[in-house]
Amino acid sequence: xxxxxxxRELIYTVGSARGEALSKVESHTPRIEAxxxxxxxEVFRVKVSVGPHPNTLEHSIRYIELYFEEEGRAxxxxxxxxxxxxxxxxxxxxxxxxxxxxxxxxxALEYCNLHGLWENYRDxxxx
Length: 127
Description:
Layout: H1 4-8, E1 11-12, H2 25-28, E2 31-33, E3 37-38, E4 44-49, E5 61-70, E6 78-84, E7 93-98, E8 104-112, E9 116-126
Parallel strand pairs: 1-9, 3-9
Antiparallel strand pairs: 2-4, 4-7, 5-6, 5-8, 8-9
């Protein structure tokens, strides 16, 4: 059984990719588009995309998850949404609309059926 620390080792990031995974960073690391600063309680758009990446039955992005790690929250992160993607028909691009009360970190996680889990994050400050 894999514990939380072991699970962390299964997730690739720009900083942790080694060996063959280094050649996959550009096409697998989720890109998060969001404002650096948002107004407390006001809706804003977050876009997460992956690629360019193949989209075949044999090789595709199967899901993207978006989390928010809120400053000062006892239990983090909060799952914002999990977006299942169907090979051939869908593209690995999702949008979510959020309202935040506190600053924190957006975390995107994506799963490629051949190259595993990849993660990226972006800080968002609430004023």
